[in-house]
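Recall that a protein's primary structure is simply its ordered list of amino acids. Everything else, from secondary elements to tertiary packing, is in principle encoded there. The following example makes that idea concrete.
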Amino acid sequence: MADARKFELDELVNRPGTYFNPQTEVLVVVDDSPELDAEIFNMEEYEGADWVLVSDETPLDENRRDELLETFQVRAQPAAAPEDEDEYSEDYEDEEEDVGRE
C-alpha cells in the first residue's frame, strides 16, 4: 500500500477524519463539530476516557462514504510489480524452438 497513514485508536479519536481498520473491517468517522449541552451530563460521573452512546444509527451519507472509500482504494493501489524480463524471454525462446520442430 502506498503511503497509507496509520494511526492508533487513541490517536485517531482526537483527530477528525475517516479511518478504516483492514483487519476488523470497521470504519470510524471522527467529527468534532457537534456540540452537546454539557449540563445534561453529571461530569463527576464521567472520566476522560468515557464515551456515551448517542444513537445506534449511523448519520452518514452512504453515497459519500462509498466515494471516499473508492478514492482511497484508487490512491492506495500497490505499484505494479515489474515482470522478470529474463523469465519472460526464456519462456518466449522455448516457444519459438517448439514451433520450428513441428
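The chain is about 35% helix and 10% strand. The two ends are 47 Å apart (CA to CA).
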